[in-house]
Amino acid sequence: MKEFAVLMTLRGSGIPEDKLKEYAVDLTGEVDGRIFPGWTEKEMVKREVMRIIRRFLMRNLPDDTPDRIRAVDEAQEALMDIFERYQ
Q1: What is the DSSP letter of 16?
Q2: pLDDT at residue 70 above 90?
Q3: What is the tally of helices (H) and strands (E) in the chain?
Q4: Contacts by 42-45, CB closer than 8 A, 24 or more apart
Q5: Measured CA distances, 54 to 31, 37, 73 (Å)
Q6: 3-52 per-position pLDDT tens digit
Q7: 87 and 40 in contact (C-beta within 8 Å)?
Q8: What share of the chain is helix, strand, coil (3-state, %, to 5)?
């Protein structure tokens, strides 16, 4: 369920369609390695998860994406919501 929500969020971000599934699985696996029950209460862990998501987006979002920084910010916020909801 979480991977599907991540995939749907990435879908509108400008990442090529053929890479979406692979990227959703990769990002979910990377974040899942850092989270645990109650992780949202720990500011250090939340910041680390936010850094992981931002780094992932900056690395994988095409350079020609219009207003790239805004797209990264919006996707990062949406992805944090997903990971907080589907602990």
Answers
A1: -
A2: no
A3: 4, 0
A4: none
A5: 12, 22, 8
A6: 999 999 998 788 888 999 999 999 999 999 999 999 999 999 999 999 99
A7: yes
A8: 75, 0, 25
DSSP letter (8 states) at residue 41: G
Contact 60, 19 (CB under 8 A): yes
Handedness of CA 3, 46, 85, 68 (dihedral sign): negative
Please give the single-letter amino acid code of residue 36.
F
Contact 14, 65 (CB under 8 A): yes
SS (H, E, C) 63-85: CCCCCHHHHHHHHHHHHHHHHHH
Q: Give the N- to C-terminal CA distance of the chain in Å, as an integer.
A: 11
